[in-house]
Amino acid sequence: MTEAQETAIRRHGKQLLAIFPNCTEQDPVKLCKKLRRLENVGHRLAEDWCNGPVPDYEEQSCVLMAKLAKVLGKHDAPVFLNGDPRGYALKIEDEWMQDNGPDYSAGGKGEGLRLYQDWGGYGILAPEIGKDGR
Which of 65, 75, 78, 93 is 20 to 30 A from 99, alpha carbon to alpha carbon? Predict the structure, then answer.
């Protein structure tokens, strides 16, 4: 992992902790890694669904969302599983991001929320952060 990548992951984790202060994992980097593993499961599930019916899709979706809820703890942000494999699987509703995003403070330093977002304005819980930090 490059320094730029680690810095970006740590920053993203801190932003997530500002939104989800009751996460079971309070280390920003470890939190991002846990969420990234769940993201991969969700993305794979969406791909499988698009390639043909998945008999237990609903059950697998519920299991994934239960695991996500356990990691995030009690919170008010509307998270959901996106079924379109062309994008990220774990997201925060766009309206919530527009209404609440700028009001969140990262680490109590007064910095507004700068969570990764897709083109539709949905918050991305577990983006793939490259070696260049983007």
Answer: 65
State the Cα–Cα distance between residues 71 and 65, nearest whole angstrom. Answer: 10
d(CA 117, CA 127): 9
The identity of residue 82, as a single letter, is: N
Domain housing 92: 3-124
C-alpha span between 81 and 67 (Å, rounded): 12
Q: How many domains does the chain have?
A: 1
Radius of gyration over every alpha carbon of the chain, rounded to an integer in angstroms: 15
Structure-token pair, residue 132: 């260049």
The answer to the question of residue 33 being in a domain is yes
Average pLDDT value over all residues in the chain: 90
Q: Is residue 108 part of a domain?
A: yes
Q: What is the pLDDT of residues 84-116, one digit of tens each?
A: 999 999 999 999 888 876 555 444 444 566 788
Residue 12 in any domain: the answer is yes
